[in-house]
Amino acid sequence: MPKAVWQPQELAQDPHTRSDKAAKVRDMFASIAGAYDLNNRVHSFGLDQRWRRAAVRMAEVRPGDAVIDVACGTGDLTELFATSGAGSVIGIDFTAPMLDIARVKSASVKTAKSSSNLRSSSEVVSGAATSRPTRVCPEYREGDAMALDLPDACADVVSIAFGLRNVSEPTKALAEFRRILRPGGRLVVLEFDEPRNGLIRTMNRLYTHRIMPWTASLLARDRSGAYQYLPRSVETFLDRDRLRSAVLEAGFASVDQKELTFGTCVLTRGRLAGR
User: Fold this and answer.
1) CA–CA separation, 113 vs 95, rounded Å?
2) 63 lies in which domain range?
3) Assigned domain for 140 exists
4) pLDDT grade, residue 113 (50/70/90)?
5) Domain contains 13
6) Residue 90 CB: number of other CB atoms within 10 A?
């Protein structure tokens, strides 16, 4: 059984103010890595991939763009960017077990793609060719969102899905994203938020604070407190308005936001001035 990472008395306070937050987050994700994808599908009712596809659309990837997916976890969003027309895709995370799963997943997609290409060749010969989206092979690296080992102005798109609230200093991460983006580059942040409709907010809190922590912990056989941390980390993190302000303060010229699923998630896109 994984050891306890978050104690109830720690989560009674704001977890984002803890000096040991980074270490706790790393240990927490390492403990739930094996059940992470399953829990995401089950407890979002299958919506998590729809939210990620919406993030890819909001990124407005152009042919040949360089995409950096930060806090990539097991690579779900990274893999979607790999078929978006991008020229290169890098997934970065600071939890090694999550990256191990991402690499296995990517290799299986590559194998399936190779088989599909063989079938396509046969179809061309037989005159029954069909068009399929091209895929670049993403690269996965271990790294810190607040100190990316990347040169200035090297990316056209930077994304971070459900990860910004897990960074020790989100404003420092936003400054890093700004640094590595080229003129005209887009930052896409996908994060949970609290719905503004009172009834939906009450129902969402009942689910995320009472039901989900118990069922997700049971499914993952987890004792780390990861699924108690999740709702608390959303509740105490920047809401959409403060996140919008933080992105603008980081140097982005404009910010657009889009609610998903009654406001339980919000997409925030920051765009740099330039081409």
Assistant:
1) 27
2) 19-193+242-271
3) yes
4) low
5) no
6) 21
Residue 228 lies in a domain: no
Q: Would residue 180 count as lying in a domain?
A: yes
How does pLDDT run across 65-94, given as a tens digit for each residue? Answer: 999 999 999 999 999 999 999 999 999 999
Residue 107 CA: distances (Å) to CA of 48, 97, 114, 225, 246: 22, 16, 10, 31, 37
Q: How many domains does the chain have?
A: 1
207-226: per-residue pLDDT in tens? 999 999 999 999 999 999 99
DSSP string, 135-202: ----EEEE-BTTB-SS-TT-EEEEEEES-GGGSS-HHHHHHHHHHHEEEEEEEEEEEE---SSHHHHH
Percent of the chain predicted with pLDDT > 90: 88
Q: What is the CATH number of the domain that holds 37?
A: 3.40.50.150
CB 269 within 8 Å of CB 160: no
Residue 153 banded pLDDT, cuts 50, 70, 90: very high
